[in-house]
Amino acid sequence: MTEVTVPLTTRKDWSSDQEVRWCPGCGDYSILAAVQFLMPELNVRRENTVFVSGIGCAARFPYYMNTYGMHSIHGRAPAIATGLAMARPDLDVWVIGGDGDMLSIGGNHLIHALRRNVNITILMFNNQIYGLTKGQYSPTSESGKVTKSTPFGSIEQPFNPISVALGAEATFVARTHDMDRQHMMETFRRAHDHHGAAFVEIYQNCNVFNDGAFEPLTARANRDEMVIPLVDGEPIRFGKERDKGLTISAAGQLAIVDVAEVGEANLLVHHEKDTGGLAFMLSRLSKGPTEPTPIGVFRAVESADRPEYGNAVTAQIAAAQARSGPGSLEDLLHSGATWTV
After folding, report:
1. pLDDT of 270-328, one tens digit each?
2. What is the 3-state secondary structure (H, E, C) of the chain?
3. Following CA atoms 134, 138, 144, 150 in sequence, which dihedral angle do they give, to the nearest 10 degrees?
4. Calpha distance 159→52 (Å, rounded)
5. Cα-trace Rg, the chain
6. pLDDT at position 241, please?
7. Across all residues in the chain, what is the average pLDDT?
8. How far apart are CA 321 and CA 317, in angstroms?
9. Residue whose C-alpha is closest to residue 201's, from 277, 95, 106
10. 18-39: per-residue pLDDT in tens?
11. Backbone angles phi, psi at 12, to 5 degrees
12. Distance between CA 212 and CA 206 in Å, rounded?
């Protein structure tokens, strides 16, 4: 087979000529930069790359990428991307959306794209607020959140996006944040290279309607003590002196411990390929970004038990054609309104 050479590109080649219009200081800028810097490293072509978005601030993303793209409708980006990935398996299909877009009206489409294991890369910008519609509470807003639509505080339990994705049995689930470009780039690279449905939650600051929501976690002065890095095959430990770690208690619960007291040999070792409850337990460790929170890849599995959806459908069609012939769509459409079975 002849190897196809992909032309060398730079960030400039992947950036469109459109003026980027987000509020000054928005975390979306850093996410866009991370993607634009990453794309030249992926050995892919712009004409084979598509960004599909829904509605919201994050959904402007396709305008700023010099690729094919679609600014679709509210919540339906995963469904539209599924159709595209099925019809054109040769394309790299990315899905961009916010926490309101994907987890409210789009929640149904998101979980089924993940359940089916469609070969798409989903980046969900989570700022815990509705930004485009001016500051209403979203499905990820914390309980008690006072907004224009919850003047007395939200009484709802928020979604945990990582738990939702894991519950839908996504084969790649990760979390990163907008204050660390290198971590974003590496996480996006892993998600892109995964064959199947990849879901990445990005903690993203909305400096107008929810400023500082993640500062207790992502501010540079706080990260060492608050971010729990997940590294495959390594004991889970964190802290400025790496003096804290995770263990599973006698009651079967995750617990933050002092490494000096329990010993490194007793720390929990992270395994991305674990298909049991480890990833879900990690996703439930913190109630929000005001507590030490795992960041990184929670699950990354590829196996014959979870085939990529497009490949499975293609194989099914080929098997059906082998049994009964290719058939004719034209004949079907002109065959009348009734069929004899």
Report:
1. 999 998 899 999 999 999 999 999 999 999 999 888 899 998 998 888 888 888 777 77
2. CCCCCCCCCCHHHHECCCCCCCCCCCCHHHHHHHHHHHHHHCCCCHHHEEEEECCCCHHHHHHHECCEEEECCCCCHHHHHHHHHHHCCCCEEEEEEEHHHHHHHCHHHHHHHHHHCCCCEEEEEECCCECCCCCECCCCCCCCCCCCCCCCCCCCCCCCHHHHHHHCCCCEEEEEECCCHHHHHHHHHHHHHCCCCEEEEEECCCCCCCCCCCHHHHCHHHHHHHEEEECCCCECEECCCCCEEEEECCCCCEEEEEHHHHCHHHCCECCCCCCCCHHHHHHCCCCCCCCCEEEEEEEECCCCCCCCHHHHHHHHHHHHHHHHCCCCHHHHHCCCCCCCC
3. 50
4. 23
5. 22
6. 96
7. 94
8. 6
9. 95
10. 999 999 999 999 999 999 999 9
11. -60, -40
12. 8
Does residue 80 contact residue 59 with C-beta atoms inside 8 Å?
A: no
Q: What's the mean pLDDT in 88-116?
A: 96
What pLDDT digit, counting tens, does each position of 35-91 carry?
999 999 999 999 999 999 999 999 999 999 999 999 999 999 999 999 999 999 999
Q: Retrieve residue 83's tokens.
A: 């159709």
CA distance 214 to 202: 11
How big is the chain, counted in residues?
341
Task: Residue 270: name the closest of 223, 243, 222, 238 by CA.
Answer: 238
Q: Model confidence over 116-156: pLDDT tens digits?
A: 999 999 999 999 999 999 999 999 999 999 999 999 999 99
What is residue 70's predicted lDDT score, i.e. its pLDDT?
A: 97
Place of tokens 């959904």: 59
Query: What is the rounded distance in angstroms from the CA atom of residue 37 to the CA atom of residue 269?
Result: 32
Burial class (CB in 10 A: 0-12, 13-18, 19+), 174: buried
